């Protein structure tokens, strides 16, 4: 029987690939009447830890407007809107450890029993994990009624074209459950 063993290089690649995706979550006020909301505007939140550029801010805002307008909501900047929306990044430093074993063997063979000395080398790697958070507040009551996030959506976006695609998809996926049925 042959044992399968993942090499350190493949393990590192698997860990980095796992960091490239995102997970969507959402929550909402079950007592809110979402059917009455037709117009929206933005408000500025002091939440989040920063870590994104104004270009990323522009990407997120454009994707957010596109998704809300696709759902039939109208951006209202001159009169009172039905709801306010904000978005912000949360950027955290994450770490993972890799260990490489070099040498060291034991076995049974030509000589009755043989072995050798080995060593292990461990390294700690770090990366920034970025999350997009979207919040929706009822304008009249100033009460949070809906919140969604894509954990990891802003992670590893070094190419502008990839960033446009991933951010657009993440905002779409976050708002897929808005409004709740």
From TrEMBL:
Residues 24-180 form the DUF4136 domain. Gene3D superfamilies: 3.30.160.670. It holds the Pfam family DUF4136. This is DUF4136 domain-containing protein. It comes from Geothrix rubra.
């Amino acid at each position: 029987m042959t044992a399968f063993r993942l090499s350190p290089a493949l393990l590192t690649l698997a860990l980095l690939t796992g960091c490239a995706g995102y997970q969507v979550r959402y929550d909402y006020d079950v007592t809110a009447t979402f059917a009455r909301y037709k117009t929206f505007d933005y408000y500025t939140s002091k939440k989040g830890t920063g870590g994104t550029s104004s270009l990323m801010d522009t990407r997120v805002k454009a994707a957010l407007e596109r998704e809300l307008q696709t759902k039939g909501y109208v951006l209202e900047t001159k009169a009172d809107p039905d709801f306010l929306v904000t978005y912000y990044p949360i950027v955290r430093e994450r770490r993972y450890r890799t260990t490489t074993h070099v040498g060291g063997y034991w076995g049974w063979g030509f000589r009755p029993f043989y072995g050798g000395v080995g060593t292990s080398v461990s390294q700690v790697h770090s990366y920034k994990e970025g999350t997009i958070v979207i919040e929706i507040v009822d304008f009249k009551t100033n009460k949070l009624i809906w919140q969604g996030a894509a954990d990891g959506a802003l992670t590893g976006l070094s190419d502008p074209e990839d960033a446009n695609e991933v951010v657009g998809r993440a905002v779409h996926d976050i708002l897929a459950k808005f409004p709740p049925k």
